[in-house]
């Protein structure tokens, strides 16, 4: 059964207020390219309204059909054919709703017309009640794909499903599992979860077992390594011991010792040969030396002889030449001798004259000085006198009592006088005469005389005692007097005078002395003038120092006064004589020198020749004294012979020494010694190593490493076995689970197989090598690409859309084959497709259009312009169209 | 030596002390280890009981050349508490070397503390006069792998005034081992060649008579699944000029059994099980059970269930090898699943795979078995 929409007219429907018509829709692919907002989607909506929405429905959807703000009746008219039978439907909504379905043979209106329509198309009856749900639009709802509706791979609605199921049920013949399936499936899933993650990675018991096995392997490997290390130590120890044994055997080996002995013997021989060589060398040197000495002697003798002859010749020649010059020289020399003598005499005279003059001057000076000294001495004597006087005068002037002191003195004296008066007035007089021997005054024997009593006194005469007591005033006056006197005397004593009168006298003298002092000082200055002759400065001190510095002895004063002018004249005469003599002498000397200059080289040549001659002669006689000289020729021949013999002997000795080379032998000995030393060192090293290894073995050996290793190894084997078992369990569960899954998929595939089968062709063009699975409700669920299973929901939007379209085509094909009317409308499809996919899908759609009508609404001019098909366009109908 | 001239000896070998038993659970491992030590006491008591003054241990006293100190101390202290003398021969497992195991053992014996030890370590091949005129010729091994015949020197070893010459060696008898071992092989007629009255050998873990004068004592406590007469020691009466009198006595605690059963159905298996349990002391038995045959899948499941829920708990240890017990699903098995649609499809797939030549056939068989188990568990669910 084919469904073909031929013509659509829409009026008062949403944006279409004026009637709009698409005409000339044919079988196959119809392409309507209009820009956005042109109303393509509105057109699809109108088509759905015409076919699926109840004409008198008053719902939100139907209300939305009216153009915004208008209260008009939306009207749709569609002409279509089913199996080439022409049909027409006209629907009017909201205002005076109506429906009319007609064909050439019948005409239906109202609800009957709706039923007729459903019959024709197989859509649900009450579509209007849940309008807006594309699922309720039936088969065509599935196939008429609005903008973006294709973006989700949604399942077809229940009716379709039932339709499809009923179609396929016979073919499938099996249903998905019941409760048994669920129980087993859940349990296996549960067990699967113990080993594997949802994505098939190891986990849980499997991971644990693997980890345990790996750990055990590691432990075993470690234990083995440790044991191996110990075993290596044992092995190394054994090796070291063997090597030590070998090394010790090497040390004990006689070969080297024997070889060394032989070498030492060789060394002795070599040393002897070397000794002989040295001797021969010395001998040869001696012989050669003797020969050389003799040859030398002869050569020297010959040389000296030649030299003597030469010297003799030179000497003779020199002497001949000198003889001519010699006479002149002698004469000149004699003359010079004479002038020299004259000069000497003149010089002597000159010297004497000068000496005399000097002597005279000296004597003159000395005389002057002597006089000066005598004068100084006189002055010094005067000075001494003056100074003495000055000293006395000064001392006297110093006795001057100062005026205030003198006043005090006068005062004291006056007081004494006053006190004396008072005493004399108050005293008692007692006169004693006669024999006074029996009388005592205060116990003291008394003498005759007069006593003035001024105090108590006891007088005894015999046994008679008289006590006299003067008046008290007398005693007091007496005391005052005494006191005054004491003070006066004290003052006098201070100034060294006994009475006041004396003090006054002394003061007068002191004043005079002070005046004299000044006079004396002036006289002293006058007595001590400066004296240039004596280099004496003025003043008494300089004079005193000079006198003190004079020698004690008094020089005898010169007696006569020299005649200085006479002496000076004599000097002048002597000087003149000297000058003359000197000139003569110089002239003579000049002449002599000239001659001598002439003679000098001759003399030198002569002397040189003479010297050479004597040298040569001396040498000859010296050489001839040599003991070998007399037999020189013979000795020389002999010496030559001996030297040749010595050379031969030396050659032989050298040869012998080379045969037994000491160095080579010593080297060989050193090698043997080094070998022995190395062996010793090896032994020591090995002993150290052995000790170390023994230590290691002792410490590690006691740890039971072998047992541990065996235990660890067996534990590893056991855990490996466990892992194997667990792995096997896991594999078993996985296989079971996957098999169950596969079975479920297969069942499902068998159910949806026909659709899938139909899609396979196109799917493989889209995604080569892929397979599909549908869910139990026929939704496209997964895509299987190789070993990968992908959930459709995770695919890209483009792919999802493409798959949705392909699914629709497959469903459409299937439904068409089942005799249902199908028509595919795609509103703005494939917007997410890349160019390659777009082309591919266009091809697939074109291909589908060979089997059914396809209406493609698009705004993408460039993408679809070139596609072969029936290109149609919207046309505004101004008049009622006829058909 | 008794008055009648009979020398009584205990001959034992292959104690393998310190064997780790790593594949077993820790408690079983401990039990097996202890049993090996207890065997020493059993032998010591037997020596006292039979009046044997000497125990000859023919090598492999220790399982490794480097056992734990505890292993050594246990061995030494257990030996020393019995009145007999112990003659220990280093074998290939516990070969003698400088600074090795036997130095450690010696350090733990009474000798180390100055007292006269009852233990003699025969680390060198020097003969020992056990008693007046009774000479022991030891052939200790000094390497893990000894290519030479260690007993060769016996022929020329002099034993002045010997009335009895007793050899003690460790190794396999030439042409004796079917495993083709080539190490330390001993010719079967060594006793005759070396004029030995008795040659005590170790290495083979079961009691084995080579000839009248040459015997293996085997290990006193079985240490692996092997069909040999292990778990014994030998009481040897040697009389000059006569063949020795050998008596084997039980020393082992654990029995290691190997059983290979061909099973046809669950009932037959149950019968076999019952028969086995009747003849063994299950708590001291370690069983290596190999099942083979083809049964119904349900029978196989039943058999495995019986093993897992009963037999394994009766025994000390069970090593089950049931891979060769093929459980074929019957038509009934598959038919019961067929009604379940998808499960049936899965069962058919696994069945087909299990009968294919593909490597996962075995896994498929198990998977099918599991599917049936899970399906039949319906009642318990």
TrEMBL record, chain A:
SUPFAM superfamilies reported in the protein's UniProt record: P-loop containing nucleoside triphosphate hydrolases (SSF52540)
Positions of the Endonuclease GajA/Old nuclease/RecF-like AAA domain: 5-77
Chain segments annotated as coiled-coil in the UniProt record: 206-280, 636-696
Keyword Oxidoreductase: no
Keywords of this entry: Coiled coil
Protein name per the record: AAA family ATPase
Pfam families assigned: AAA_15
Top-level taxonomic group: Bacteria
Taxonomic path: Bacteria, Pseudomonadati, Pseudomonadota, Alphaproteobacteria, Acetobacterales
């Amino acid at each position: 059964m084919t469904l073909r929409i031929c013509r659509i007219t829409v009026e008062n429907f949403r944006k279409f207020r004026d009637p709009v018509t698409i005409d000339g829709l044919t079988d196959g692919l119809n392409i309507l390219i209009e820009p956005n907002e042109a109303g393509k989607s509105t057109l699809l909506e109108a088509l759905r309204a015409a076919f699926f929405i109840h004409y008198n429905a008053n719902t939100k959807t139907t209300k939305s059909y009216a153009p915004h703000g208008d209260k008009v009746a939306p009207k749709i008219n569609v002409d279509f054919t089913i199996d080439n039978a022409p049909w027409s439907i006209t629907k009017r909504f909201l205002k005076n709703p109506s429906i009319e379905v007609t064909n050439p043979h019948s005409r239906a209106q109202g609800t009957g017309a709706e039923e007729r329509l459903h019959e024709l198309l197989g859509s649900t009856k009450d579509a209007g009640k849940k309008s807006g749900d594309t699922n309720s639009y039936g088969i065509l709802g599935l196939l008429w794909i609005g903008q973006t509706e294709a973006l989700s791979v949604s399942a077809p609605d229940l009716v379709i499903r039932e339709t499809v199921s009923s179609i396929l049920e016979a073919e499938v013949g099996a249903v998905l599992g019941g409760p048994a399936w669920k129980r087993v499936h859940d349990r296996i899933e549960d067990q699967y979860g113990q080993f594997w993650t949802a994505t098939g990675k190891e986990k849980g018991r499997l991971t644990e077992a693997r980890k345990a096995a790996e750990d055990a392997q590691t432990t075993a490997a470690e234990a083995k390594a440790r044991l191996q290390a110990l075993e290596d130590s044992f092995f190394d120890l054994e090796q070291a011991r063997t090597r030590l044994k070998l090394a010790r055997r090497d040390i004990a080996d006689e070969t080297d010792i024997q070889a060394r002995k032989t070498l030492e013997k060789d060394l002795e021989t070599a040393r002897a040969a070397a000794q002989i060589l040295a001797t021969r060398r010395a001998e040869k040197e001696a012989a050669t030396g003797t020969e050389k000495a003799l040859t030398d002697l002869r050569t020297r003798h010959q040389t000296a002889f030649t030299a003597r002859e030469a010297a003799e010749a030179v000497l003779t020649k020199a002497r001949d030449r000198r003889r001519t010059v010699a006479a002149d020289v002698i004469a000149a020399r004699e003359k010079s001798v004479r002038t020299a003598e004259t000069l000497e005499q003149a010089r002597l005279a000159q010297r004497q004259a000068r000496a005399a003059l000097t002597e005279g001057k000296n004597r003159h000076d000395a005389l002057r000085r002597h006089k000066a000294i005598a004068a100084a001495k006189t002055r010094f004597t005067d000075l001494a006198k003056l100074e003495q006087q000055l000293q006395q005068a000064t001392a006297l002037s110093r006795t001057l009592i100062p005026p205030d002191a003198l006043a005090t003195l006068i005062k004291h004296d006056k007081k004494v006088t006053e006190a004396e008066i008072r005493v004399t007035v108050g005293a008692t007089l007692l006169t004693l005469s006669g024999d006074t021997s029996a009388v005592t005054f205060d116990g003291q024997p008394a003498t005759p005389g007069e006593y003035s009593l001024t105090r108590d006194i006891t007088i005894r005469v015999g046994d008679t005692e008289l006590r006299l007591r003067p008046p008290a005033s007398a005693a007091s006056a007496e005391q005052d007097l005494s006191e005054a006197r004491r003070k006066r005397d004290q003052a006098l004593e201070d100034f060294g005078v006994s009475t006041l009168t004396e003090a006054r006298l002394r003061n007068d003298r002191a004043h005079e002395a002070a005046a004299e002092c000044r006079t004396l000082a002036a006289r002293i200055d006058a007595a001590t003038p400066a004296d240039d002759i004596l280099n004496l400065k003025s003043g008494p001190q300089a004079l005193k120092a000079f006198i003190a510095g004079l020698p004690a002895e008094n020089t005898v004063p010169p007696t006569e006064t020299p005649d200085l002018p006479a002496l000076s004249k004599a000097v002048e005469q002597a000087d003149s004589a000297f000058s003359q003599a000197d000139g003569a002498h110089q002239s003579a000397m000049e002449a002599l020198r000239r001659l001598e200059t002439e003679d000098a080289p001759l003399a030198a040549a002569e002397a040189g020749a003479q010297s050479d001659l004597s040298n040569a002669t001396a040498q000859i006689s010296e050489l001839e004294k040599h003991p070998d000289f007399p037999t020189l020729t013979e000795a020389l021949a002999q010496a030559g012979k001996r030297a040749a013999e010595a050379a031969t002997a030396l050659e032989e000795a050298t040869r012998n020494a080379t045969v037994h080379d000491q160095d080579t032998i010593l080297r060989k000995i050193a090698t043997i010694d080094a070998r022995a030393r190395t062996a010793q060192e090896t032994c020591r090293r090995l002993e150290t190593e052995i000790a170390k290894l023994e230590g290691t073995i002792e410490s590690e050996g006691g740890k039971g490493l072998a047992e541990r290793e065996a235990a660890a190894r067996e534990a590893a084997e056991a855990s490996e076995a466990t892992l194997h078992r667990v792995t096997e369990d896991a594999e078993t569960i996985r296989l079971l689970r996957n098999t169950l899954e596969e079975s479920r998929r297969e069942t499902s595939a068998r159910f949806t197989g026909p659709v899938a089968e139909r899609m396979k062709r196109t799917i493989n063009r889209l995604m080569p090598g892929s397979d599909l699975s549908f869910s139990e409700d026929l939704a496209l669920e997964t895509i299987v690409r190789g070993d990968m299973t992908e959930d459709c929901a995770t695919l890209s939007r483009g792919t999802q859309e493409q798959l949705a379209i392909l699914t629709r085509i497959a469903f459409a094909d299937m439904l068409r084959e089942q005799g249902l009317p199908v028509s595919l409308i795609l509103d703005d499809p494939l917007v997410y497709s890349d160019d390659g996919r777009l082309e591919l899908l266009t091809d697939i759609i074109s291909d589908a259009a060979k089997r059914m009508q396809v209406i493609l609404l698009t705004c993408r001019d460039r993408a679809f312009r070139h596609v072969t098909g029936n290109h149609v366009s919207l046309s505004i109908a101004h008049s009622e169209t006829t058909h | 030596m008794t008055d009648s001239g009979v020398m009584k000896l205990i001959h034992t070998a292959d104690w393998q002390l310190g064997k780790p038993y790593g594949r077993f659970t820790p408690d079983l491992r401990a039990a097996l280890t202890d049993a090996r030590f207890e065997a020493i006491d059993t032998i010591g008591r037997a020596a006292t009981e039979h009046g044997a003054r000497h125990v000859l241990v023919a090598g492999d006293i220790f399982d490794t050349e480097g056992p734990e100190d505890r292993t050594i101390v246990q061995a030494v202290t257990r030996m020393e508490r019995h009145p007999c003398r112990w003659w220990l021969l280093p074998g290939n497992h516990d070969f003698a070397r400088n600074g090795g195991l036997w130095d450690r053992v010696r350090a733990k014996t009474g000798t180390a503390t100055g007292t006269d030890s009852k233990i003699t370590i025969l680390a060198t091949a020097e003969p020992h006069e056990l008693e007046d005129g009774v000479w022991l010729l030891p052939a200790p091994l000094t390497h893990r792998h000894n290519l030479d015949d260690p007993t060769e020197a016996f022929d020329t070893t002099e034993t002045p005034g010997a009335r009895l010459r007793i050899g003690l060696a460790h190794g396999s008898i030439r042409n004796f081992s079917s495993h083709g071992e080539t190490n330390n092989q001993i010719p079967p007629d060594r006793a005759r060649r070396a004029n030995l009255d008795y040659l005590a050998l170790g290495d083979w873990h079961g009691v084995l008579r080579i000839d009248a004068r040459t015997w293996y004592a085997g290990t006193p406590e079985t240490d692996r699944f092997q069909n040999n007469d292990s778990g014994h020691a030998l009481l040897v009466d040697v009389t000059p000029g006569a063949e020795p009198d050998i008596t084997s006595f039980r020393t082992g605690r654990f029995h290691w059994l190997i059983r290979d059963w061909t099973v046809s159905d669950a009932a037959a298996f149950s019968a076999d099980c019952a028969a086995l349990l009747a003849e063994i002391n299950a708590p001291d038995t370690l069983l290596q059970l190999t099942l083979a045959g083809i049964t119904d899948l349900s029978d196989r499941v039943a058999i495995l269930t019986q093993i897992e829920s009963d037999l394994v708990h009766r025994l000390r240890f069970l090593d089950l090898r049931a891979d060769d017990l093929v459980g074929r699903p019957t038509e009934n098995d598959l038919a019961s699943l067929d009604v379940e649609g998808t499960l049936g499809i899965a069962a058919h797939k696994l069945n087909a795979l299990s009968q294919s030549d593909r490597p996962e056939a075995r896994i498929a068989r198990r998977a099918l078995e599991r599917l049936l188990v899970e399906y039949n568990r319906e009642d318990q669910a």
